[in-house]
Amino acid sequence: MAEQKKPADRGQSSRFLKYSGMATQMLGTILAFTYGGYKLDEWQQNKVPVWTLVLSLVSIGASLYLLIRSFTKQ
């Protein structure tokens, strides 16, 4: 006999999926921008990794902005 999930359990699991999806999106955005900056620095043969620093900071800012915006919509 399979147990039925209570409505409260479904809400908790959907919140978990929502927040884990947001975390995955943030991580993916930060990694993609940082990798792009690394490749730009490699292509331009920069001694100081300017593009890596700039794009990683931009991606962190953008990820935090999207996270805050999603919380305020609720």
- In DSSP terms (H or I, runs of 4 or more residues), the helix count works out at 2
Q: Helical content, roughly?
A: over 70%
* Unreliable sequence segments: none
* Alpha-carbon Rg, integer: 19 Å
The shape is elongated
Percentage beta strand: under 5%
Separation, N- and C-terminal Cα atoms? 37 Å
Largest sheet: none
Q: How many beta-strand runs? A: 0
Give the topology string: H per helix, E per strand: HH
Return the structural class: mainly alpha
Please tell me the overall pLDDT: 88
Keywords: Membrane, Transmembrane, Transmembrane helix
Protein name: F0F1-ATPase subunit Ca2+/Mg2+ transporter
Transmembrane segments: 21-38, 50-68
Organism: Dyadobacter beijingensis
Structural account:
The protein is 84% helix and 0% strand. The chain is built from two helices and no strands. α1 packs antiparallel against α2. The radius of gyration is 19 Å and the shape is elongated.
SSE order and pairing:
Layout: H1 7-44, H2 50-73
Helix pairs in contact: 1-2
For this entry, give a set of tags.
single chain; 74 residues; 2 helices
Brief overview:
With 74 residues, the chain is mainly α. It has two helices and no strands.
